[in-house]
Amino acid sequence: MSRVKIKAVLGLKPESQEITVKGWVRTFRNNQFIALNDGSTNNNLQVVVELGLLDEATLKRITTGAAISAKGTLIASLGKGQSVELVAKTIEILGDSDAEKYPLQPKKHSLEFLREIAHLRFRTNTFGAVFRIRHSLAYAVHKFFKR
Q1: Phi and psi (nearest 5°) for 132?
Q2: How far is Cα of residue 7 from the mean position of the Cα atoms in its chain?
Q3: CB 3.0–4.6 Å: which of 48, 58, 109, 111 could bond 54 by disulfide?
């Protein structure tokens, strides 16, 4: 089962298909709901962790900014704000993030603040959108001159 980008997942019609997604944790609520983003879109994918699936040590490692891989079943979402969600069968932590030191918390950040953390700018919605537009424009120019 190969990785699927979140932008593609959000456009799928849920038919209980098995998929794998990878990305950074934006938020983790109630030890059950993970908002996951891989940079392919501004929208997050909700990953639902069934209670009892993960041990306490692994749950503590899922913090804002942590990189994870989630495998599971794509279903129609019961909640508001999203059309699909992933019910996780396995979650693998690819990279830890110290929540106390990670500078990008789920709040609004000024451009001045983001200037100081250049290596993490691309994980914000603002810079992610700017660089997706920049990529589209550069690719359009490339296609034009390739003809």
Answers
A1: -70, -40
A2: 10
A3: 58
Contact 34, 64 (CB under 8 A): no
Superfamily per CATH, domain 1-102: Nucleic acid-binding proteins (2.40.50.140)
CA-based nearest residue to 95, from 19, 22, 11, 145: 22
Tens digit of pLDDT at every position of the chain (147 positions): 689 999 999 998 888 899 999 999 988 888 899 999 998 888 899 999 998 888 888 988 998 889 999 999 999 988 787 889 999 999 999 998 876 666 566 667 677 766 677 666 676 777 788 888 999 999 999 999 998
The segment(s) of the chain belonging to CATH 2.40.50.140 are 1-102
Q: Give the predicted TM-score (pTM) of the model.
A: 0.75
Neighbours of 48 (CB within 10 A): 19
CB proximity list for 56: less than 8 A, separation 6 or greater: none
